[in-house]
Automatic annotation (TrEMBL):
Positions in coiled-coil regions: none
Topology of this chain in the membrane: Multi-pass membrane protein
PANTHER family named among the record's database cross-references: AUXIN EFFLUX CARRIER FAMILY PROTEIN
Record field: transmembrane: 39-59, 66-84, 123-146, 167-189, 201-221, 228-247, 253-272, 279-301
UniProt source species: Pseudomonas peli
One Pfam family here: Mem_trans
Annotated GO biological process: transmembrane transport
The organism's place on the tree of life at top rank: Bacteria
Family: Belongs to the auxin efflux carrier (TC 2.A.69) family.
Name this polypeptide is given: Transporter
InterPro entries linked: Mem_transp_PIN-like (IPR004776), Na+/solute_symporter_sf (IPR038770)
Species classification: Bacteria, Pseudomonadati, Pseudomonadota, Gammaproteobacteria, Pseudomonadales
GO CC annotation: plasma membrane
Length: 308
């Protein structure tokens, strides 16, 4: 399992490094990166989420127990972060990056690992995890951005509008609806959405690398450390607790804990850029957690496995 985890993390680290090189070598014009981020947020990532949720093969997966475990553990940890907001001594935009670092997850790594561990059953488990966590974290993050983002506190109707128009939330709702309807996606459209979704992963990681400012790394130690404690320790423990509450065991429990212990998603950076967060800090948290995950993730997963 350790080898598989490391192999899944290596291409992510390499793509982030390549993005940093492309930005600083001026191989691409400066104007390319904001447009690439916009394309990823409004087109590519929604395509990925919609397609993966709409086409999931659920089989014998304990859907209800897995969703309850993942949603409740995410909400619990999110509430803890907000409750401790004043204690961390970060400004509003920086707190949104800490928050995303604590609750979001890199589904590319998760799908790769569980598919390698459990085969076709792993893909079904990953689909359920995405269905549970992706809408939950996107709603929570929009609410946090509305309260603490640099765009200022939004009134209730503006928050509702943000949620209703958020492309990631909309894509998740539509994908789950298509899955529930049983109609599926037409063949030609299916291929287009799949291709767009696949493009979101490398482009998002390149944008993360391009946003890295290593000169400010000294100021990132505290938020990277705090977000990593939440992501690699508190979140998996909360998930383990809810696994016992709902009787989730075996492969489903391992997959749930694994997804909750993943490094934060590359889409966190794009969301920070679009909604008024601290995007450079977010890029640092993504890079820092990705590097830490190579060491911490195997330890976390193998430590909790005997308890499920």
């Amino acid at each position: 399992m350790t080898t598989l985890l490391l192999l899944a993390l290596v291409p992510i680290a390499l793509l982030i490094s390549m993005g940093a090189w492309l930005r600083h070598s001026t191989f691409l014009q400066e104007s390319f990166w904001p447009q690439a981020e916009r394309l990823g947020y409004y087109v590519l990532l929604p395509s990925l989420f919609f397609h993966s949720l709409a086409t999931a093969q659920l089989g014998e997966v304990p859907v209800r127990d897995m969703i309850l475990t993942l949603v409740l553990s995410t909400v619990l940890v999110a509430g803890l972060l907000v409750a401790l907001r004043r204690a961390v001594s970060l400004d509003g935009p920086a707190f949104t990056s800490l928050f995303q670092g604590g609750v979001r997850f890199n589904n590319y790594v998760g799908v790769s690992i569980v598919a390698g561990l459990f085969g076709a059953q792993g893909i079904a488990l990953a689909a359920v995890a995405n269905a549970a966590i992706v809408p939950t974290v996107n709603v929570l993050c929009v609410l946090v951005f509305a309260r603490y983002g640099s765009h200022g506190r939004l009134p209730f109707n503006a928050i509702c509008r943000q949620l209703a128009l958020n492309p990631l939330v909309v894509a998740c709702v539509l994908g789950i609806s298509v899955q529930a309807s049983g109609f599926g996606i037409p063949v030609g459209i299916d291929a287009v959405l799949k291709a767009l979704g696949q493009a979101s992963l490398p482009l998002g990681l390149l944008c993360v690398g391009a946003a890295l400012n290593l000169g400010a790394a000294g100021g990132w130690i505290k938020p990277i450390g705090l977000s990593s404690i939440v992501k690699f320790l508190i979140m998996p423990l909360a998930t383990l607790g809810f696994c016992h509450v709902f009787g989730l065991k075996g492969e489903a429990a391992i997959a749930a804990i694994l997804f909750q212990a993943l490094p934060t998603a590359s889409s966190s950076y794009i969301m920070a850029r679009q909604l008024g967060g601290d995007a450079p800090l977010m890029a640092g948290i993504i890079a820092g957690q990705t590097l830490l995950a190579g060491i911490v993730l195997p330890i976390v997963v193998m430590s909790v496995t005997p308890w499920v």
